[in-house]
Write a structure and sequence with these properties.
OB fold (Dihydrolipoamide Acetyltransferase, E2P), pyruvate-formate lyase- activating enzyme, binds iron/sulfur cluster, single chain, binds 5'-deoxyadenosine
Length: 441
């Protein structure tokens, strides 16, 4: 029999994150909460006393992946029975009723508003699962400074939850009502990050431009973050087109630190489908907004989210989506097959488009976007851009990588005089749909 004789050391936590940037930021906060409570962290699940998965519920596929991973990790539990397995985040909230049936090996289930109580939940009696999925309209975790990773870029959560209730989307149900982080807490975090050498701040929220704290809206928040010394670049994600006010556009246009890149989810190019989705704008209004943005912000890059095969999407609606993509000429896009989600407004409507047809439509939007991205990137050949250096390129070969102001990935030859965190001017020599091969003139 193997006796574990390391009772004195701090219990080790292994945390794996799925889904969006909000989840990555939440994981950094969970890490800070657990460290404060005396836990140590590890990047090796085999070594861990506690294994946590921070999960996503946005599409069925995301949930299936986590359930698969959970059954793998359950085997590690067999090897060390006192090891605890916990599931955090959106999937915990979404599946609160069925989760323990689907994954009986779970010890802890905690939703996005329960992280403060994680140390107590983890201290619960072994073998007796603890579940905490209470949503809390007021929770912003504004007093907790996340355990940021060391990088030139840091993500700062400025608002949580969503009040838009788009018909397809589970977010308002799993992350609860919209609430903004108090302004002083945001500025304190940004200042702290600037002191430790972070160059770029990405402000995060499910509908980030709905930010409001007393009289301060999102445009003013951008200006106040831009006033922090040491920070050289500011981005934000994801804005909702309906909250893209003149004030926000003006701040983007006037503040040099706010980068000329916007992720502006459109979801569909058909007015009929947009209305059914409850998105709150027409294609005409969206295109007008794009025009206003482009005339206010020179060299603006735009990306978007597209869903194909939503309930009732006919061939003509799909054609309208392709048409809108061409008209805007997006720099990049995230494209998804519609996934029916329990609790959402569209749930009871079900699917009208077969999976095969969704796959065909998805392949078509992806192919179109590849050609649009390539065309837009090729148009940059010969031009120069300041690139914030992130580190060695993954493909090696003596190349380094960083982002242009438009959030495009630029590769350029390493040299002893170029360090991580520097901003270097590069000239674009050639382009693919996903990256820019550059020289340092
Ligand atoms: N099915 C497919 N895609 C979805 N998204 C949100 N809900 C669903 C769903 N049920 C997409 C939207 C959103 C992005 C984060 O995920 O495009 O903008
Ligand atoms: Fe979901 Fe719509 Fe809210 Fe975005 S705005 S998180 S798509 S409900």
């Amino acid at each position: 029999m193997i006796v574990e004789n390391n009772a004195c050391r701090a219990p080790r936590v292994y945390l794996e994150t799925y889904g969006c940037q909000m989840n990555i930021a939440d994981s950094q906060m969970v890490t800070a909460i657990l460290q404060q409570a005396g836990y140590a962290t590890t990047s090796d699940a085999n070594e861990a006393d506690i294994i946590l998965l921070n999960t996503c519920a946005i599409r069925e596929h995301a949930e299936d992946r986590v359930l698969g991973r959970l059954s793998d990790l359950a085997r590690l539990k067999d090897a060390r029975p006192r090891r605890k397995l916990g599931l955090l985040g959106c999937m915990a909230q979404h599946n609160r009723a069925s989760l323990l049936k689907k994954a009986p090996w779970l010890d802890v289930v905690a939703g996005p508003d329960s992280y403060r109580r994680l140390p107590e939940l983890l201290a619960g009696v072994a073998g007796d699962p603890t579940v905490d999925v209470r949503l809390d309209r007021a929770e912003t975790y504004s007093d907790i400074s996340p355990a940021y990773d060391s990088g030139v870029r840091a993500y700062v959560t400025v608002m949580r939850g969503c009040d838009k209730f788009c018909a397809f989307c589970v977010v308002p149900y799993v992350r609860g009502r919209e609430r903004s982080v108090p302004l002083p807490a945001i500025l304190r975090e940004v200042e702290r990050l600037a002191e430790r050498g972070t160059k770029e701040i990405v402000l995060l929220g499910q509908t980030v431009n709905a930010y409001r704290y007393n009289q301060v809206g999102f445009g003013q928040l951008l200006r106040m973050v831009a006033a922090v010394d040491g920070i050289t670049r500011i981005r934000f994600t994801s804005p909702h087109p309906s909250d893209m006010t003149a004030d926000v556009i003006e701040a983007m246009a006037q503040e040099p630190k706010v980068q000329p890149y916007l992720h502006l989810p459109v979801q569909s190019g058909s007015d009929r489908i947009l209305a059914a989705m409850g998105r709150g704008y027409t294609t005409e209004a969206y295109l007008r907004l794009v025009e206003r943005l482009r005339s206010a912000i020179p060299n603006l890059a735009l990306s978007t989210d597209i869903i194909v095969g939503f309930h009732g999407e006919e061939e003509s609606d799909f054609a309208a989506t392709l048409d809108l993509m061409r008209r805007v000429g997006y720099d990049s896009a995230f494209m998804f097959k519609y996934s029916v989600r329990e609790h959402t407004r569209a749930f009871k409507l079900g699917d009208t488009v077969s999976n095969e047809e969704k796959s065909r439509r998805l392949a078509e939007v992806i192919a179109l976007q590849e050609s649009l991205s390539l065309e837009r990137n090729r148009a940059l050949i010969g031009r120069e851009f300041p690139v914030l250096v992130e580190g060695p390129a993954r493909r090696g070969g003596g190349m380094m990588v960083g982002k242009t102001p438009q959030f495009k990935t630029a590769l350029f030859p390493a040299s002893p005089s170029i360090n991580i965190g520097d901003t270097v001017n590069v000239r674009i020599a050639s382009a693919t749909a996903h990256s820019l091969l550059s020289t340092v003139p």
